[in-house]
Design goal:
Shape: globular
Helix content: 25-40%
Strand content: 15-25%
Distance between the termini: 34 Å
Largest sheet: 5 strands, mixed
Oligomer: single chain
Strand order of the largest sheet: 6-5-4-7-8
Mean pLDDT: 89
Structural class: alpha/beta
Length: 310
């Protein structure tokens, strides 16, 4: 079960409780001294800083985390993390600003982008294995570089300025209890990665980072996937008609359609520059759909372990 709002308020009723919880999570996750690399620290209550036992180097509570150089209270960060993990559909920065009662939009938007980046860093370290469905998805975005300029003639189909290509991967396994009308495979984890172009080299580079070498990949017979066998164990390409794509590669297309629907319901538009961050949020919650009330804690630890200034 997801942590309910009343439970969150009971755990973190004020700023001090959030600061103390953040301190305990930092000690649990482990700190590293910037001078000697030591991991043994103790908490100095009088100045509210960590101190290395070897070199006496002091570290502030936010230093080396996603909250570094942020002036927003800890409770604001905690509420944002809770809402982003407990709500099934994504929440916009404008709605977050309204819920938190802030006058300025920019700090809230920036905070949420940092949280989404921390989400993405968690999934980047893992790879998919076994049977993996792979296909391209095209998401409607706004060209951030040419916004406000004179409208130019737009292309249609692939290569359109309104469409950003995304490589979608779905890790699957044979379904033991298959019901009528359901896919022959059940899904495990997913990866959604924005592509600069749709060439075979780009797809292979992403696959090399995202897939285990022993993976058995399933794709359509698009030309961009022709050299995929160079980075995976086996590559099975099928000739798929557009109307049958959802049947032949079901989980990939379910992920694409659900991601598009989530973004459409929450945001007026998405800049192509930040599309990966929004996909990070969608993928993070999708891959941890059975974590329940542990999802808040896991994301908080991810924010602690991720340094914005790496």
């Amino acid at each position: 079960m997801i942590m309910k709002l009343i439970e969150f308020i009971q755990h973190f009723p004020d700023e001090q409780s959030c600061r103390e919880a953040f301190r305990d999570y930092r000690l649990k996750a482990g700190l590293q001294c910037r001078k000697c690399g030591g991991t043994k620290h103790y908490w100095m209550k009088s100045i509210e800083q960590f101190q290395c036992k070897e070199r006496r180097t002091r570290t502030t509570l936010r230093k080396g985390t996603v909250m570094e150089d942020s002036n927003l209270p800890f409770q604001t960060w905690f509420i944002a993390i809770h809402l982003m993990t407990s709500v099934k559909k994504p929440i916009s920065a404008k709605e977050m600003q309204r819920q938190l009662g802030y006058k300025r939009y920019e700090p809230i938007w920036y905070m949420m982008q940092k949280i989404r980046t921390a989400m993405g860093s968690r999934d980047e370290s893992s790879t998919l294995s076994g049977m993996v469905e792979i296909d391209e998805g095209f998401f409607t975005t706004v060209d951030s570089e040419n916004r406000g300029k004179r409208k130019q003639k737009l292309k249609r189909g692939r290569g359109s300025q309104k469409q950003t290509p995304v490589l979608v991967m779905a890790e699957t396994k044979t379904s033991k209890s298959r019901k009528k009308g359901c896919p022959a495979y059940s899904c495990k984890n997913f990866k959604l990665t924005v592509m600069e172009d749709q060439t075979g080299e780009t797809i292979n580079d992403i696959s090399l980072k995202s897939l285990d070498p022993n993976t058995r990949a399933m794709t359509d017979n698009a030309r961009a996937f022709s050299k995929l066998d160079q980075v995976v164990r086996t590559h099975k390409a099928k000739t798929i008609k557009p109307k049958d794509a959802g049947k032949e590669l079901p989980w990939v297309h379910i992920a694409i359609s659900n991601a598009k629907r989530c973004m459409l319901s929450a945001y007026h538009h998405v800049d192509d520059k930040y599309l990966q961050n929004y996909l990070n949020e969608y993928t993070y919650k999708l891959n941890r759909r059975y974590f329940g009330d542990k999802l808040f804690e896991r994301l908080l630890i991810a924010c602690i372990s991720f340094s914005w200034f790496i």
